[in-house]
Amino acid sequence: MTIDRHALGFGSGERAIYAADPWTTRGRLYPESSSPTRSEFQRDRDRIVHTTAFRRLKHKTQVFIGPDGDHYRTRLTHTIEVAQIARALARALKLDEDLAEGVALVHDFGHTPFGHTGEDALHEVLERFGGFDHNAQSLRIVTKLERRYAEFDGLNLTWETLEGLVKHNGPLLTPDGEGTRGPVPQPILDYCEIHDLELRSFASLEAQVAAIADDIAYNTHDIDDGLRSGYLTFEMLEDIPFLAGLMREVRDRYPHLEASRFTHEIMRRQITRMVEDVISVSQERLRELRPQSATDIRRADRVIATFSESMAETDRLIKAMLFKRIYRHPEIMRIRASAAAIVTDLFHAYMADPGLMQGHYWVDCIPQLGEAARARHVGDYLAGMTDTYALKTHGRLFDHTPDLR
Where does the record place the HD domain (predicted)? Predict the structure, then answer.
């Protein structure tokens, strides 16, 4: 596929007819007066950046546990990279850049300490109480758990930003009301009872570019961090034709390049080719759909911002390599088991004595709550922890804390 460069929105400031319009937003759950200096999506983006949840991302694991080194990605640096790519895609497709960036910045708010390991452990202990889902937890954070404003809990984000947070990976319900990826988490269903996010439809194109930007970012930086850690080698990358081609290209142009620069040249080309692929596919699908509004994007029968078939196969091969070589590496699995034990220990300790949850605003009321409500509060508290705080707290409450190095 090729890119129609005349249709790109670089520097034009023009918003396409199918872009989300901040001036005609569906509004907020709690009505607020408009700002004379910022659009509604700008305000959402700014509120997200100023949250406690955003700051905590700097000490939450992406893949490698914090003590492994200062140069590995954290949830925060990953989030910033996703936001950069999402904004680039939004600008090229003439979308609302602030909405795309806002969805990208908020998409990982609900992640636990220790990455997906912590999420799996928390889901296991909460399974009989409805389980744990980081996307649903993100919604809880921005609609309830952030307690900053005088007139409401949460951030009171616009409908479009909340829709993007919940549905950036596609509809959650089929037209018949069945879950597209299993049962819809209860916190999402509960919120939709008071503020319907239309779970049967796709999200805006802004949310879609945020979702594909997430794939592009972690496919690239997990390779970068894998090479830095030694779990990956350049020889392993040769098994993927796309990456092998990039390495040949760099070697042909820079035959004597040092390893660190060689890695960066591969990664920057990977991001560029993937971004250009998404732009090309999106333009083609927009020409076919001919949407006249953002509503037409939501009502479409397929995602618009996605990879071509060949790039989707590359994406699959990269994920399979990362899973085999890094995510399931014996040393990583050893560390994951220790991290899971920390989360599980803390959950049971807080369930037995909620008073141990220092600073939790519900702590005085929790002993009077039923077991399910108590477990959800404990889950909220644990999910909000950073890696460093979880380690420190476990060391304070238990005689032995597993070594995560």
Answer: 75-219
Q: Using the structure block, give the residue that is written with the tokens 């476990």.
A: 394
Taking only the tens of pLDDT, the chain with its 405 residues reads 677 766 776 555 689 999 999 999 999 999 999 999 999 999 999 999 999 999 999 998 877 665 455 567 889 999 999 999 999 999 999 999 999 999 999 999 999 999 889 999 999 999 999 999 999 999 999 999 999 999 999 999 999 999 999 999 999 999 999 999 999 999 999 999 999 999 999 999 999 999 999 999 999 999 999 999 899 999 999 999 999 999 999 999 999 999 999 999 999 999 999 999 999 999 999 999 999 999 999 999 999 999 999 999 999 999 999 999 998 888 888 888 999 999 999 999 999 998 899 876 666 666 677 899 999 999 999 999 999 999 999 999 999 998 887
3-state secondary structure of 182: strand
What pTM value is reported for the model?
A: 0.93
Which H or E element spans position 273?
Answer: helix 259-289
DSSP output for 163-180: HHHHHTTS-SB-TTS-BB
Give bridge partners of residue 23 from the DSSP assignment: none
Three-class secondary structure of residue 123 per DSSP:
helix
3-state secondary structure 3-41: CCHHHCCCCCCCCCCCCCCHHHCCCECCCCCCCCCCCHH
| Contact by Cβ (8 Å): 42, 22 | yes
Closest CA to 14 of 86, 131, 108, 95: 95
DSSP per-residue letters across 193-215: HHS---TTS---HHHHHHHHHHH
Would the CA dihedral through 48, 50, 53, 54 be positive or negative? positive
Helices (H), 323-405: 330-352, 371-383, 387-397
Residue 263 one-letter amino acid:
T
**Six-digit token string for 130:** 């409805």
Assigned token pair, 238: 């040769």
Instruction: In whole angstroms, give the CA distance from residue 327 to residue 305.
Output: 27
- Rounded-to-integer distance, Cα 166 and Cα 160, Å: 10
